[in-house]
């Protein structure tokens, strides 16, 4: 391996970095993404920034404007609701498949995540709780082994993540959602596909109902 290849591997993935920055509200909706500024902030080349912006535009996180560069795309509550409505079917499928395909290693990961979620709620760590929810989503997708559903969900969840992050900080939300997440985990651990699917559907329908109150 050449030195250039070693350096390339050592550098953090720019697309992941910028995606996380957008999802974590480090960039506001409609904020312009100036190539030179991104290069300076992330220590990246112009070529890598342009590639990243094209990738994130394809994911629906940013929009490219003729002769005006790129900016963070604002996703309305109405669009966020539609995204979660689509996710209901896909995430229910992944939960079902995860229950059907559960391995011993997967069981250990789920139990550890369940304990971490309970700790975050009991200590009032809402930021940590939100991150753990994302970890649970990723783990269920991985356990499902369903590549098409996983690819679709990664794009959809990225687009709706900002609104769901806001929901996580509503008063009393964690106390409501934590048992829903626990029910999903317990159903998968029990290798009960029907219960896993039903628990996932119940949770996401609650998210939709809450989003509608914000519309």
TrEMBL record:
PROSITE patterns linked to this entry? HTH_GNTR
**Gene3D superfamilies, per this entry?**
GntR ligand-binding domain-like, Winged helix-like DNA-binding domain superfamily/Winged helix DNA-binding domain
Start and end residues of each HTH gntR-type domain: 8-75
Name the keywords, alphabetized. Answer: DNA-binding, Transcription, Transcription regulation
This protein's superkingdom?
Answer: Bacteria
InterPro entries associated with the record: GntR_C, TF_FadR/GntR_C, Tscrpt_reg_HTH_GntR, WH-like_DNA-bd_sf, WH_DNA-bd_sf
Coiled-coil-forming residues are: none
Which molecular-function annotations from GO does this UniProt entry contain?
DNA binding; DNA-binding transcription factor activity
Query: Pfam families recorded for this chain?
Result: FCD (PF07729), GntR (PF00392)
This protein's name: Putative HTH-type transcriptional regulator YdfH
């Amino acid at each position: 391996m050449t030195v250039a290849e070693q350096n390339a591997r050592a550098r953090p993935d720019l697309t992941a970095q910028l995606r996380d920055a957008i999802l974590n509200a480090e960039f506001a909706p409609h904020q312009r993404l100036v190539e030179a500024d991104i290069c300076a902030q992330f220590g990246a080349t112009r070529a890598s920034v342009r590639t990243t912006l094209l990738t994130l535009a394809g994911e629906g996180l940013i929009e490219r404007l003729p002769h005006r560069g790129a900016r963070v795309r604002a996703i309305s509550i109405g669009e966020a609701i539609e995204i979660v409505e689509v996710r209901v079917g896909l995430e229910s499928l992944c939960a079902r498949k995860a229950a059907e395909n559960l391995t011993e290693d997967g069981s250990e990961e789920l139990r550890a995540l369940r304990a971490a979620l309970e700790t975050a709620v009991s200590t009032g760590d809402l930021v940590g709780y939100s991150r753990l929810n994302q970890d649970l989503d990723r783990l269920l997708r991985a356990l499902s082994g369903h590549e098409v559903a996983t690819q679709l969900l990664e794009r959809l969840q990225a687009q709706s993540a900002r609104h769901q992050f806001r929901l996580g900080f509503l008063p009393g939300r964690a106390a409501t959602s934590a048992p829903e997440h626990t029910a999903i985990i317990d159903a998968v651990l029990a290798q009960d596909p029907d219960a896993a699917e039903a628990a996932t559907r119940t949770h996401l329908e609650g998210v939709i109902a809450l989003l509608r109150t914000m519309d």
